[in-house]
Design a protein that fits this description.
There is one protein chain. This protein is an alpha/beta fold and about 425 residues long. It has helices at about 25-30, 30-40, 60-75, 85-100, 110-125, 145, 165-175, 220-225, 225-230, 255-265, 265-270, 290-300, 315-325, 340-345, 360-365, 380-390, 390-410, 410-425, and strands at about 10, 45-50, 75-80, 130, 135, 150, 155, 180-185, 200, 240-245, 275-280, 305-310, 330, 350-355, 370-375. It folds into two domains: about 10-205 and about 410-425, Glycogen Phosphorylase B (Rossmann fold, 3-Layer(aba) Sandwich), CATH 3.40.50.2000; about 220-410, Rossmann fold (3-Layer(aba) Sandwich). The chain contains 18 helices and 15 strands. The strands form three sheets. Strands 1-3-2-5-7-8-9 form a seven-stranded mixed sheet, with helices on one face. Helix 3 links the parallel strand 2 and strand 3 (about 75-80). The two termini are about 30 Å apart.
Amino acid sequence: MFHSEDTRFLEKNEALGSTDINAYTEFIGSEKVERLKNMAGALMNKEWAHVNSTFSGGGVAEMLRSVVPIAKGLGINTKWYCIEGEEEFYSITKRFHNIIQGVDQKFTLEDLFETYIKTNRDNFANMVIDEDFTIVHDPQPCASIVHGNYNSKTVWRCHIDTSDANEMIWNFLLPYINNYDGVVFSMPEFVKGGIKKPVYQITPAIDPLTTKNRQREEKEAYESLNDLFVEHEIDPERPIVLAVSRYDIHKNQKTIIKAFKQLKNSAAIKKLKPQLIIVGNSATDDPEGMEMYKEILFEIDGDTDIYPLLNIPNNNENIGALMKVARVFMHISTKEGFGLVVTEALWQGTPVIGSNVGGIVLQVIPSKTGYLVEPFDIERIVGFLKHLLTNKEEQEKMGMQGIEHVRENFLITGLVAKYIKLMRFLLGTDFPYFKI
């Protein structure tokens, strides 16, 4: 539990409720469901906590909205806590994120000590954290391991690629990281040197029961999109190319726009009249998002076939439906921790053109679930777009293969199973096969 007379923590627990694991039988089969129940049996009445920096916006919060109820349904008392910070803190940690992933930005020790450490200290100084097992997500609350009082087995879960992290930032974070009992990354390639604690690989995953990820018929998807299409004058009869992500420099939306503009000049494509829809949400811990959105508008330069949407209504339903009706999904990041949005698109049966970075390469199997490209290779992006838009049979075949790839590798039940196995190991009852 988190004990404090003057807590700055925000809590998101009761509203989430619990999820019956049997509801996933149709997706993974009864054998895997029973195996998960048996694994969780050893942890009945144990307590599990998650700590991160936002309850909404971004893949981490989205996963926790499923992980917490599933764990509760398995009999593990699970809670989710969110640190509270001023806008300056989120700006600083966003720069952390950018610098760790190779963007050259100015940074001072004053930023580190006066904002980052102060926020962690203010949130954790009076806390006693005595859940049996705690997962702290990403850099924002990483320093809590020193500034808080953890009476639990504690793991730092890094969702971003740190392999080329700026040395000053990494050396600043490393003493905190090495105070944890273990560290989890999405891929072995993301692990930078200096970590002295056990490292594990757990890939992110999606929940097929959520509004966004439920599988729907194309007719139903178009019906649910009617209001959105009318509002933005999007033509449902024309092919849709879709991109969904934060408005962020690493998401490389400008390259997608340039490639689409070039695509429209192709004689084979002109008669199809494709449309590009770019959807982004602004997260509470991402103050740079609106600035990037303005740059995207400048790049579009009034092109009426490109629709940049921000924080659309009925977000989860509409994004899931857009992924269903899109002919092609694009995710051309320059840096990527994993790219759950790729998983979501594949699950809706849409092939993906993705960059050959980060976790995208685990999801996009060339010529099977989509195509991989270099992040700025506009010619190849255009070529693959043209191929998929003019070969509907192959597009549909790839879509079916994408669904099965996700079913086998990237559903939320598999992620929960690995967390449970790691918890059992740290509590002395198991050994994780996914140790790096």
